[in-house]
Structures are given as C-alpha cells and as structure tokens.
UniProtKB/TrEMBL annotation:
The chain crosses the membrane at residues 12-37, 49-70, 77-96, 108-126, 215-237, 243-263, 270-288, 294-323, 335-358, 378-395, 402-423, 435-454, 466-488. This is Uncharacterized protein. It comes from the Bacteria. It comes from Virgisporangium ochraceum. Coiled coil: none annotated. The keyword Transmembrane helix applies. Keywords: Membrane, Transmembrane, Transmembrane helix. The keyword Transmembrane helix applies. The lineage of its organism: Bacteria, Bacillati, Actinomycetota, Actinomycetes, Micromonosporales.
Length: 621
C-alpha cells in the first residue's frame, strides 16, 4: 500500500512539475510508456508501444466525455494526473508490475520508415513562409471547418456536442455533431505542447499547430501501416522479407492513392484509417490474453466511432467475424465479453447516433469529391492478396482466415456505398471512395500473404549478420516491386490529374490559393472589431468573397457568428447574396471591401437596410 500511495502522489506531482517548468509534453510520453508496461504481448518494444497506442486512442476518446462535465476542462495537470492515476489503479487491481520487452532491429526499420514519411509530409510546410502555408490551406474550404472545431474544442474544454449552445457560438452548426475524436486528441495534445490550459494562441498559430498534428498524424499512419503488415505476417518474415515488405508498404503510403488524404488535408480520414489498420492487425493476430484482446478491440472500435464513423459498420462486422472465428475462446470469458460490450457499445455508437438522428448526416453520402482511388490497382492487389490467402498454406492459419473475414467486411462497406451512389446518382462520390481507401488499407496490411508463395524461412544462427546481409538486396527488391506497381515514376494509376501526381502536388505546393492567402494576410493586419461583430468580406467575385469570409471568420474565431449568413440561403453566386446575409446575421455587421466597385455595391445594399448596424470598411491597398 505504501508503494501505491507513493505512486499516486507521483502521478500528480509529475504533471504539476512539468507544467510549471513548461515541459508538460513529456506527460503523454510517460502515459504511453506506462500503458505499454502494464500490457502483455508483443515481441519487441515497438510492438508493445503500438498496442498501448491502440488502447489509449479509444480510452482517450471515450474518457474525454468527462472533460465537459468536470471543472478542469482539458487542463494538462488534471488530464495528466487522471491518466497516471488510472494506470496506478490498474497496476494495483491487476497485480501487474510494469515490464517492457527489449527493442529490436526491426523496430528501427519501422521507425525509420515512419520518420521518412513524416519528413516527406513536414518539409514542404516547414520550408515555406506562413503566407505560403496559408495558400496551401486555402486551396480547399474543408480545413477551415475542421480548424474551427479543433479550436472550439480547446476553447470549450470538451466535446462540442456536450456544450451545445456555446459550441454554436464558436462554429458552424454542422460541426457540432461531426465526429470529433481527431480534433479532441489534437487539442488535448496541444495543451501539453503549450503547457497551458487556456493559451489558445492566435488563429494563425492554431492553424500551424493543427497542420502539425496533420503531418504527425500521417507519420503515425505510416508507422501503423508498416507495423501492422509486419505484425500480421510475422510467421514468415526474415530480415530480407521484412525490408521488402516495409519498402513496398512505405512507398505506397507516400506515392500511392492514400497520400491524397494528406494533400487534401483530410485529417480525420488519416487517423480513422490508422485506427482501422490497427484493428485489422489485432483481429487477425491477437494479443496476449483474451481479456486484454477484448479491451484492445473495444478501445479501437470506440476510437473509430469517434474519429470517422463511416468506417464503423466495417469495424463492427470485422469484430463480429472475429467473435465467430474465436467463439470457443470468447465463450470461456462470457462475463468479460459481456461487460466489454455493455461498456463500449454505447460509447462507440454515440457520435453516429448524434450525426444521423440530430444532424441528418446520412444525406451527405451522396456528396461528390475529387479523391478517387485507382480501381485497377484495387482489383490487382485484391486478387493477389486473396489468391495468396486462399491458395497457399495461409488458408490453414487462423490468422489469415480472420484476416480474410475482415477484408470481406471492408469490401462489403465499399460495395454497398458504391451501389447506393450508383443507384442514386449514376456514379460514385466522396464517401464511397473513402470506403475504397479503407479496402486499400486492409489489402496493404495483408501484403504479407504473398510471402507464403516463397519457401518457409530458415532462421540463421546470427540474426544481426542476417540483417546486414539482407539490407542491400532487400532495398533493391522493394524498389523493383514498387516500380512494378508504377510507383517509382509516378505513372498510372496514381495520377489525380494529367501531368502530375499527389506527391508532386504536395511537395511543390501545386495546389494553392495565393490570391486569397495574400488577402487574408492583409485582412488580419487590420484592427479587429469587437467579438460580437460579424465580419463579411465582399468582392465582385462571389467565390473569392466566400473563401475570404470563411477563413477570416475561422482565424478571428467568428465562425459561429457568420455561419447563418455563410452556409444557409441562396447559392454563392446569387446576385443578392449580400442582402441575404444582412437579413440573416444577427447583431452588428462589418463589410470589408477591396475595390471601388465592391464598395459601391456594398453601400447600395446597406442602404436598403437602414435599421441594421452595418459598417463598410475599405481594405488598405
């Protein structure tokens, strides 16, 4: 008991001291390592850390429901102290002492691949000015809403849907019921990075931090993909085969269809795909102990439900398939299974229930989009992987039978959405293509099945020498295999448009909006009006006015104030859209114009509403 008391005291002392020293960012690392120490299973240190990450993703998404109802919000001392206290209590109740396996050379290979991908994602942003980064962000409007949700969660100190009225004052109403797991995780970590519970920084600072979370999220996605492929194929891996498998998966993450999610700033999709890759790996090849397996699966399902619930049906079908395949093992732990389902199911289903029944988000399934994965690539990869599972010694292994069931669940989701959209519109759109990205992720995790076409590996007496001997031929083989898929030169099927590729678009910032970025810089340099004023940018080009109003509202934290005038009502190019905005927006309004024609039209429109408090302001040239 004395040790437990000392551990509890340390659980609160560490977050307090690091917070006062401005280095609270070490607390999440301690929580990750501490969780890994209490888990069991995994051959290497990285295995254990990734399994701990899987548990923490879901536990944090579900546990964050507390933040909106207790008085501490998302303060790093309170959150860090609570997390470490839970770890101490788990250790006491289970009688487990923290232990960690040793690191392995394979860990360095996986980490090296993830670092390389993170560097690929980060360098184009780091080497550019803030205005250039803003130009990349302004290439699409989606990130503005995600940024306002991330910023709003930090301001509210909890999920937006738990603080309904306050959230609507900060953001567009459609984001209040949007799945918020990624935004919560990013905002929570940002508090530790800033070592502050209330320092939100400027709007542009929030943009930089959120872009940083996106870049790190894609690096994490690469880490998870490489790890999951190795985890599932562990029984047939040699150093040479591990290097080839790592090289091929990494190349496809960097150059293939999936990198479009990085380019288009689909932050939630990236994390949702990473969580699904973890779920595929854990379902196919379980962890030590049935209870720990059940907890890990439950946490990942909760994480998917809070992050990107489009994937939740596939996740639930995959879990159901695992329960059927492992029914004898599960039936021996009926009580643990029942408790896990009763606790996890309502939490995992909460976001999708809010989205479908309160916000009517099912209508969004017909939305169009520009991210279309290569069908030829999916068919070829699917045929290769399923053929290897069905017609090699894989078919006798429970790991691969379970994997095939998980692949079928993902494929069923993609096929259902494609069929629905084809019947409704005669084509396929945004969410069907996201489901096909999930199928691609599951196929890449199962690439190790192709290794069963090779003879069974022989283990050499000196694993270190085997690694050195395998390095050069392994890298060469990875390059050859990747080139066979058309990845090295970047030709079909990985071109989103003629003459370029997703990596070129990202690396050379080919997708950018310099005109609006420079305008936003000038707008932010102007004195900001009081917080209760709705600021509208008016221009003779209606789409330019829309973009600038949208992002200026995000950076000035007025998204909630301008939402009714921005999203509801006539189309963007409606001639009297400015008049509609003046009718719909409550309270005082400021109209910013940059040209004589825009100013003349704005003043004519304002004259029709003499009872409104409206000021027309000229943007300095």
């Amino acid at each position: 008991m004395a040790r437990a008391g000392a551990a509890l005291a340390l659980a609160w002392l560490l977050p307090t001291v690091t917070y006062l020293l401005g280095i609270a960012v070490v607390v999440p690392v301690v929580v990750l390592v501490g969780t890994a120490g209490l888990l069991r299973g995994g051959r290497t240190l990285l295995d254990r850390l990734v399994l701990a990450l899987a548990v923490l993703l879901g536990a944090t998404c579900g546990g964050a429901l507390l933040f909106a109802v207790w008085p501490f919000g998302m303060h790093p001392v309170a959150v860090g102290g609570l997390a470490l206290t839970v770890l101490v209590l788990v250790a006491v109740l289970t009688g487990r002492r923290p232990t960690l396996p040793r690191p392995d050379l394979s860990d360095l290979l996986t980490l090296g691949a993830a670092v390389a991908v993170a560097a690929f994602a980060a360098l184009p942003l780091l080497r550019r000015s803030r205005t250039d980064r803003l130009a990349v962000v302004l290439a699409g409007e989606d990130l503005s809403r995600h940024l306002s949700l991330y910023d709003g969660i930090r301001d509210l100190g909890g999920y937006a849907f738990q603080k309904w009225d306050a959230a609507h004052a900060l953001m567009y109403g459609g984001m209040v019921t949007y799945p918020q797991g990624q935004h919560m995780l990013a905002g929570l970590l940002d508090g530790f990075v800033r070592s502050s519970g209330d320092d939100l920084g400027s709007g542009l600072s929030a943009m930089d931090h959120y872009l940083g979370s996106h870049v790190l999220g894609y690096g994490l996605f690469a880490l998870v993909m490489v790890w999951a492929a190795q985890w599932v194929a562990a029984g047939v891996l040699t150093p040479l085969r591990r290097i080839v498998l790592t090289g091929v998966v990494t190349t496809m993450v960097v150059v293939g269809d999936l990198v479009g999610n990085l380019v288009l700033n689909y932050t939630t999709t990236v994390l949702g795909l990473a969580e699904m890759a973890l779920l595929v790996a854990v379902l196919a090849r379980g962890v030590a102990g049935t209870r720990q397996q059940l907890v890990t699966i439950a946490c990942l399902v909760v994480a998917v439900g809070f992050t990107y619930y489009l994937f939740l049906p596939a996740a639930l079908l995959a879990v159901l398939a695992w329960l059927v395949v492992h029914r004898r093992r599960v039936l021996r732990h009926r009580v643990a299974t029942a408790v896990t389902v009763v606790v996890a199911a309502p939490v995992a289903l909460l976001p999708v229930t809010l989205g479908l029944f309160l916000a009517g988000q099912a209508q969004a399934l017909l939305r169009g989009g520009e991210l279309r994965p290569s069908r030829d690539h999916l068919i070829a990869l699917g045929a290769a992987v399923t053929g290897a599972v069905l017609f090699t010694r894989c078919r006798r292994a429970r790991i691969w039978r379970t994997y095939l069931a998980v692949l079928a669940a993902a494929g069923l989701l993609g096929a259902a959405l494609l069929a629905y959209q084809a019947a409704a519109e005669g084509g396929n759109g945004y969410y069907a293509n996201k489901a096909l990205h999930l199928v691609l992720v599951v196929l890449l995790v199962g690439l190790g099945a192709l290794l069963h076409l090779l003879p069974s590996p022989r283990r050499g007496p000196d694993p270190r020498r085997a690694w050195l001997q395998a390095l050069a031929p392994g890298l060469a083989a990875a390059l050859v295999v990747s080139g066979a898929f058309g990845l090295v030169r970047g030709d079909a099927p990985y071109r989103p448009t003629n003459g370029t590729t997703w990596p070129k678009i990202w690396w050379f910032a080919q997708r950018r909006n310099d005109v609006d970025a420079r305008a936003i810089d000038r707008l932010l340099a102007m004195p900001a009006p009081p917080a209760d004023v709705a600021v509208i940018v008016y221009d003779v080009d209606p789409f330019r006015a829309y973009f600038q109003t949208l992002f200026l509202g995000t950076f000035q934290r007025r998204s909630g104030r301008i939402a009714h005038g921005l999203y509801l009502g006539p189309p963007v190019d409606e001639p009297d859209r400015l008049g509609h905005q003046l009718r719909e927006l409550p309270g005082p309004v400021e109209i910013v114009v940059a040209s004589d024609d825009a100013e003349a039209h704005a003043r004519q429109t304002v004259a029709r509403y003499p009872d409104r408090r409206v000021e027309v302001v000229r943007l300095p040239s």
